[in-house]
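Troubleshooting: if your tokenizer reports a length mismatch, compare your output against this known-good record of 293 residues.
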Amino acid sequence: MISARSVERHFGKNKAIDGVSFTLDQGRSLALWGSNGAGKTTLIRCLLGVIRFRGQVEIAGRDVRRSGKAVRACVGYVPQELAFHDDARVGESMRFFARLRGVPGGRASELLERVRLPDQERKRVRDLSGGMKQRLALAIALLSDPPIILLDEPTSNLDASGRRDVVEMLAELKQAGKTLLLASHRPDEVIALADRVLVIERGRVQADTTPKQLWPSEAAVQVVRLHVADGEGERAAQLLRNAGHAVDFNGHGLCVAVPRTQKASPIRVLTLANVEVRDFEFFDDLDAEEVRS
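Known-good structure output:
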């Protein structure tokens, strides 16, 4: 369904994507995991064929550069940054995108019901909560009933209730046979939705693994944020990855997702390598703003 071979994307001298290759079969799901700036969003844009890249990407048997329009017709895309006309009403927005997709207008109401936005057609987009806007974006992505859904941080900036709703809807889509590819920094999302995980750092694939291999314990996952000495962050992150930990190094510390029963494990790894841990914090619920601020 999706095949990427030796994909590269340069911004000047910087390799944002450096030789990424993977395949994703129909009806399966893949999560892109990595730090801020690892290249996840850039890779998704390459897959969509909306930016230039080296290498080859095929979706549904078509080359995205030669048949970009046909490829995008079979893909539903939910970006991280949502762009709506705030003064438009929900129903108007749905019908506008339905016309662009060549879809009957009646499907708009059907999908608003499906994403749990019933009786919201007259409401202005600016009056929707963050979770409602995310559900609206998902409804728009589903207008043409695409077999493939690409999502870039689908629950970013949502509260716990909004995240739960979106994850449940995505799980239903997966169960219905949709092919899902999502970028996420939340281990609970990855565990709930992904069959495989592509760990990406500095534009390169560090591991093609599974949620079970990243978090083998049955215990719930908790996030530990570690603060190390200046200049030691990159080395510490690599040591933790070599030890099998999922790490998000975002410039404000090392966020390590671990089972609740193994919270001391990343500290032990760094201590044995003579990396000083100056401070640490635990997060019971991985809130995007709290952890990344």
